[in-house]
Automatic annotation (TrEMBL):
Organism: Pseudodesulfovibrio methanolicus
Record-linked InterPro entries: DUF1045 (IPR009389)
Protein name stated in the entry: DUF1045 domain-containing protein
Superkingdom of the source species: Bacteria
Length: 244
């Protein structure tokens, strides 16, 4: 991992490889985090065509399939010139070594605006980890221009979110951080959204209502804006480089 890097990186929570939550996410999205999405993803077992057609499933899951099954801690960023992937990994390892492992509180399927997500019962430790990621990784990021920030500003944004956008390049950080694992793209029709929530609550019943270990900070990479994000590195929490 040397040389000039390109594209964008994000620091995310992703389930431990091969665990129940990881398998659920891969089945629901039709891809795992570490490979490129297939051209024709297959709906998960247990999802009947009568409940949701393959075409409707692909449309609903297309946006999160592009990003992978994850919860954002540090939003995607383009690294500064001269910052390569080895430098990003080095910073991530140092950060991970300073954080103690903890548990992700029990998850449930919820509606957030017009999309569906898995949301934990408590956000405190996740918020602390997200703030640590934001402060540690921001010095490696190309700052957003005022024009880019204006393009991201929306009419419904609160004054606090607008200030965070100007300072950090993203409005949903620090006091506005809300952890979630996205399951669908926008579903504007409320009846269809309610049906999807029922379907997902049933499919996710085996992975909701219980905690999960958070033992890693996961680095995801997107080579260019048209390419999907892939998980490229896992940094163990509490393990300094000297002890790893």
């Amino acid at each position: 991992m040397t040389g000039q890097t390109s594209g964008r990186y994000g620091v995310y929570y992703a389930p431990e490889r091969g665990g129940d939550l990881d398998r659920f996410g891969a089945a629901w999205l039709g891809r795992d985090n570490e490979s490129v999405p297939p051209a024709a993803p297959v709906p998960p077992d247990g999802l009947s065509p009568e409940a949701l057609s393959p075409e409707a499933w692909r449309a609903a899951t297309e946006p999160p399939r592009h990003y992978g099954f994850h919860g954002t801690l540090m939003p995607p960023f383009a690294p500064l010139p001269g910052v390569d992937e080895a430098g990003i990994v080095d910073r991530l390892e140092t950060l991970a070594g300073s954080l103690a492992p903890f548990d992700l509180p029990s998850l449930s399927v919820r509606v957030i605006g017009s999309f569906l997500a898995l949301v934990p019962a408590d956000q405190v430790r996740l918020g602390e980890a997200a703030e640590a990621c934001l402060r540690a990784m921001t010095p490696l990021r190309i700052p957003a221009t005022p024009e880019e920030n204006e393009a991201r500003r929306t009419p419904g944004m609160t004054p606090a979110q607008s200030r965070l956008l100007d300072e950090w390049g993203y409005p949903y950080v620090l006091s506005e951080f809300r952890f979630h694992i996205t399951l669908t793209g926008r579903v504007e029709d409320p009846d269809r959204r309610a049906r999807l929530a029922d379907i997902l609550s049933g499919l996710a019943a085996s992975v909701t209502g219980r905690p999960y270990p958070v033992r890693e900070l996961c680095l995801f990479h997107q080579p260019d804006r048209s390419a999907p994000f892939r998980l490229t590195y896992r940094a163990r929490l509490g393990n300094t480089k000297e002890n790893s």
